[in-house]
Amino acid sequence: MAFDMSLVQRGARLRRTPYYEATQRYDPKGFTVYNHMLFPIRFDTFEAEFEALLNDVTLWDVAVERCLEISGPDGFTFAQLLTPRDLSRCAVGQGKYVMICDSDGGIINDPVMTRMDQTTFWFALASSDALLFARGLKNAYPDLDVTIREIDAAPLQIQGPKSKPLMAKLVGEQILDLKYYWWRRAEIAGVPVVITRTGWTSEVGYEVYTLDPSRGVDVYDAIMEAGQEFNIKPTGPSDIRRIEGGIFNWGADMTYENNPLEMGLERLVDWHLPDEASISLPALRRIKAEGVRRRIVGVEFDGDPFPALNFVKWPVIEGGTKIGKVTSAIYSPRLAKNIGYAWVPIERSELGTTLTVESEWGTRTATVVPMPFVDPEKRIPVS
C-alpha cells in the first residue's frame, strides 16, 4: 500500500509563516517545505488558480522566501562578491534579478535583490543554503565589516490584472507610479510594509513584505477584505504561468551544477567588472571562452495533456542512452499544449530539434521551441 503522506512529521522544527493561521481559513489543499518553512502550494485546482491569476487577482503566501540581508560599512563590497551583476547600477529604491554564484560559476541562488540603502541589500531567497553560503564566504574576507542575517521581512505576492486597483485601494493611488522592479514603504492595516513591483508569475503584480511578522494575519486579512470586490483568491504558485513565462525554479530547473551561461542568462553577468569584484567572475570568463556544452531549452510535448506537474526529472533518451533531462513540464490550458524545460547537449539545442522523453505518463516526443512560450518580450508584467 502507498504510504500515507499525512503521517509525515510536521512538528515545531518546521516553521510556520506569519500568515499560516490566516491561510488555514481558506482550506489549503497541500503544503510543501521550503527554506525549512511550511508553504501552502494549492487552495483549488491548478487550472482554477491559473484562471484567477489571468483574469482577476491572487494572494500568495511567499514568506518562505527568506530575506538574506547584507549590511554594514562594507555591505556593498560583500554583496558584490556574491553576484556577477554590477550592483552599482542598482539605485537605492530599486531591485534586480541576480544570480548568487560560487567560485566555479555554479548558481547558489537566483533571488530578487533590493537595495535598501547605500550599503544594505536584501536577497529574497529560493529554497537553498544561501544564508550559510554567505556566512561561510565571510570567513574568507575577515577584514570586511559586514553583517549577514536572515531578516524578519515576510513577503506576500499580489498578482494578476486587478492587482493595481487593489493596491491603490490598500495604500493609495500613488502606488500606481511605482515602476517595475522598484520598491517603496507603506502601511497596510497599520503595519509597516515594503512593496515591490515584482512577482513570480509573468503577470502584473506586487510583493508586500510585512516588517512586523507578529501582525502577519492582520495584513493578510486586510488584503483579502479589500480584494473582495476584485474577486481575490488565495493561491499557491502557478507553475503553468511561470513555465509559460520562461521563469526558472531553483532546485528543479537549475542547481549548484549549472551556471548563468548555460541558462541563457548571460545578461546577468557584467563582464566589465574586475575579477576581484565577484568570486564567480574568473570562472565565468573561463566558461565563456571555452563555450558551454549544454543548455536548458523550452520544449513542447506531444500526446494527451499531462495530468499534473512532473514529480521527478525525466530522462531524455537517444540511442538507448540518457543525454539530458526534463526538469519542469505541465499542460497549459491556454496554449492547449504540454510545455516545459529540458537540459540537452549544445548540439541538440537548436530550435526544431526533436527529443525522446521517458515521462511519468509514457514515452513522449518533445520539440525544442522558443521561450518564453507566452509574451516573449515580457510586456505584461511591466505594463
**Considering DSSP H and I runs of 4 or more, what fraction of the residues is helical?**
10-25%
- Mean pLDDT figure: 96
Going by CATH, the homologous superfamily of the largest domain would be Probable tRNA modification gtpase trme, domain 1
> Could you state the order of secondary-structure elements as H and E?
HEEHEEHEEEEEHEEHEEEHEHHEEEEEEH
Integer count of domains: 2
CATH topology-level fold name of the largest domain: Gyrase A, domain 2
The count of helical stretches stands at: 9
Q: What general form does the structure show?
A: globular
CATH class of the largest domain: Alpha Beta
Give the topology.
Layout: H1 20-24, E1 30-34, E2 37-42, H2 46-55, E3 58-61, E4 67-71, H3 75-82, E5 95-97, E6 100-101, E7 107-109, E8 112-117, E9 120-124, H4 130-138, E10 147-151, E11 154-159, H5 163-171, E12 183-188, E13 191-196, E14 205-210, H6 216-226, E15 233-234, H7 239-244, H8 281-290, E16 294-301, E17 314-318, E18 321-332, E19 337-345, E20 354-359, E21 362-369, H9 379-382
Parallel strand pairs: 3-15
Antiparallel strand pairs: 1-2, 3-11, 4-9, 4-10, 5-8, 6-7, 8-9, 11-14, 12-13, 13-14, 16-19, 16-21, 17-18, 17-20, 18-19, 20-21
Description:
This protein is an alpha+beta fold and 383 residues long. The protein folds into two domains: 1-292, Gyrase A, domain 2; 293-372, Beta Barrel (Elongation Factor Tu (Ef-tu), domain 3). 19% of the residues lie in helices and 31% in strands. The chain is built from nine helices and 21 strands. The chain has a six-stranded mixed beta sheet with strand order 12-13-14-11-3-15. A six-stranded antiparallel β-barrel has the order 16-19-18-17-20-21. Strands 5-8-9-4-10 form a five-stranded antiparallel beta sheet. A hairpin with a 4-residue loop joins strand 18 and strand 19 (337-345). The longest helix has 11 residues, at 216-226. It is globular. The termini are far apart.
